[in-house]
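Support case: zinc ion complex. Customer-provided input:
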Amino acid sequence: MAPSASRPAGAAGAAQAKVVLEEHRRLFNAAVTKLVNAQASNGTMMKPARYDYIVSHLREFPNLANKDKDHGVAQAYRTQTVGESEWIVPAKAGTRSLEELRRYVHTGELFELLLTEHLVCGHGKHTTLHNAVSARYTNITRKVVDLFCQSCPSCISKRHRPPGREGHKPILTHGFGVRGQVDLIDYQSCADGEYKWLLVYVDHGIKWCDVRPLKSKKVRAQNAHIPQHPLA
Ligand SMILES: [Zn+2]
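Agent response - structure generated as follows:
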């Protein structure tokens, strides 16, 4: 038995969920990369390299010569040690408690943070999700939140769709020979003498079917065998 055939249904479901999650991650990260590359030089989104530069620069800042100091960074940010990690927070945040601090995030951690908040608030979107992340993070914009929701497979599947038209509206055909369907079946591999093709004609008007063997599939041969009347 093939390995896939013996795999339990739960494992197959988990594998499928992982594929869906990775596709969500790929779509979101691609959209964020496009957004961060298009933002102005003073944009609030940070790539991981920019985040690391700010952390290391603030750490070395007191020991740097004045000409090497990036005063813009020092005026805008400060670091906050939390456990083993070092947060970047706004310099003007002052000495708030950890619960009140809103830290910066870089684009490499956006997906995981948004996914956690998105699930906590029951696939909350737009204002709900933006309010939730804004309570803890300072540079996640509404545009980024919308990009996340727009690429969430679960949210996409629940989008409102316009209702279908009431009732089925078939194309009505009245009478014989107005509309029909011709299928040509290839019997070259098991021909009956000279007959290598089978023409099947179904008339839509009276639901009548005729079958004729053909020696050739040329249009002229087909036309010659399309019946002009069911009793012909
Ligand atoms: Zn969702």
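Confidence is low (pLDDT under 50) at residues 1-6.

Case will auto-close in a few days if no follow-up is received.
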